User: Fold this.
Amino acid sequence: MRPRPRISNTRKLVLKFNPAVVGVSPLCEAHRKHLFLPITLFTSKKAAFTLAEVLITLGIIGVVAAMTIPTLIANYKEKALQNQFKKSYAMINQALLSAQSSFGYIPRCYYAYGSASVTTTSECLDLTEKFLSNLKVIRICEDHAYEKGCIPEYKGIDDILKEQHKDDEDYDEEYWQDYATHNCGGFNTSEILNNKKVYILADGTIMFFYRENSSGCLITAIDVNGMKGPNKSGYDLYAVRLSSDGNRFRYESDGCLAAEEGGRSFNQMYNAAFKK
Assistant:
């Protein structure tokens, strides 16, 4: 007689807890393997995270995100402003060089390079006319530019200086107002918002001059991204002056529109944008 096959303990347990199989005709071992799953499938513990572990992990992710996302956003905005700065700079610089070439020499309208001394302004208005003709100006606001929606609400040099010195122990608002008016009155807040002739270019760049009718483009304020914002001096708004060493023009920072807190001068932004 053929010996009865031995049944493993696992299958004994299956038979014990599955009485329906009692009396079933004998099956080959291979069929039994397919019919009955090992009891360990139903009784073994699976590895898993506890609720506390999940909450701790989410908390860590939240803290890291809170620390890094603002920096990433700030870096993105800074890069966008640098790219717009480079674009606007290339545009106005090309317009200036084209205007210069029409003279065939360096027009008499510049500061001595690296100096606060004006060398000459006798040809500034002629240079300004040629300079503007090389730009794609799509709108001109003769005055009251803010009221007409041509410019955002900029802070002029008077309000910037008062903001910078408000915590001084001997702060005197009237002093800083007079200081700004006597030294850089062409870029006072009320002067910018109400009296400036503003040029809006095809790419949205906003531009106005310190003294439109006398020195023209000798000193220019440029908002490199127009109405988009932040519309703050030292961020997207810069004052530049024409300077020369006698051989070529170049733009430099002009102090009559100082950078607001945390901002940069034109020279600093130029060096950052062009990795100087």
